[in-house]
Amino acid sequence: MPIVEVSPGVSIAYETFGDPSDPAVLLVMGFSAQMIAWHEDFCRALAERGRYVIRYDNRDCGLSTKFDDHPVDMGLFTDTVSSGDVASALAMVPYTLTDMADDGLNLLTVLGIERAHVVGSSMGGMLAQTMAIGQPMRVLTLTSMMSSTGESDYGRPSAEAQAVLLRPKPSDREGYIAAAERDLVWASKRYGDAALLRELAAESYDRAYHPAGAGRQLGAMILSGSRADALRGLRVPTLVIHGLDDILTDPSGGKRTADLVPGAKLLLFPDMGHDRPRELWREIIDALDAHTR
């Protein structure tokens, strides 16, 4: 698994699929999830459409650089944000979503890729949006999947989903794997599969168990603010994908994103939650294939 330094003190683990001479597609994963959440079979299927597919671990996740010298007390952080003391909250978090977005673009630079199609899922969608906003000349197309705009009125999780998201998982391997079934709450009602969730949890635990990074990523996400004005001015061809079963990021987040970005296309899947069921891969890949031509 290659690991490269993309900026001083930050190294990113990545993997590629396909022919480097084909158009590059950068897959950006979401909150606390390792790049293996972009399933290898999904990556290979997309590469078979004539794309050079790159998946990578965000900072503080997987095999990429950890920021453990900056611990975040999430209770204190949440209280500080709630009190409106944004300056103090910002001082607690060692990086921003912009820093995380720059990691992806800097990885492309290291790989000698000037421009790429960028596909982001959940928090990865926020990162992909941030890449397109900050450096539009490097983003051939943007695909924002099961994500939102940073506005508090859109894409809100249900109370049940939020409780599961913020509930700490057991630290032992067996307990961690069993707890993965909680994620069924926001999975596709039709295709949600507990066995697959446990399989990914086992692989993730064995590869790089690092719960401390989640708090820092969450802090960066909470403090990112609204991208609404910037999205209104975005001129990057944009596809928005969202599942109507999604209760972790309400479909209003995807709809709002598509409403804001000029000319954006909106693709809604009735049988998709906050996941990418294998049963829908063909349709998702067909959409990505058409959008990235």
Helices and strands in order:
Layout: E1 3-7, E2 10-17, E3 24-28, H1 40-47, E4 52-56, H2 74-82, H3 86-92, H4 97-110, E5 116-121, H5 123-134, E6 139-145, H6 159-166, H7 173-179, H8 194-208, H9 212-222, H10 228-232, E7 238-243, H11 251-260, E8 265-269, H12 281-291
Parallel strand pairs: 3-4, 3-5, 5-6, 6-7, 7-8
Antiparallel strand pairs: 1-2, 2-4
Q: Roughly how much helix do the residues carry, as a percent range?
A: 25-40%
**What summary fits the major beta sheet?**
8 strands, mixed
Q: What is the C-level CATH assignment?
A: Alpha Beta
CATH topology: Rossmann fold
Strand order of the largest sheet: 1-2-4-3-5-6-7-8
Q: Give me the number of helical elements.
A: 12
Report mean pLDDT, rounded to a whole number: 96
Q: Radius of gyration from the CA trace?
A: 18 Å
Distance between the termini: 29 Å
Strand content: 15-25%
Q: What would you note in describing this structure?
A:
Strand 5, helix 5 and strand 6 form a beta-alpha-beta unit. The mean pLDDT is 96. Helix content is 40%, strand content 16%. The protein is globular.
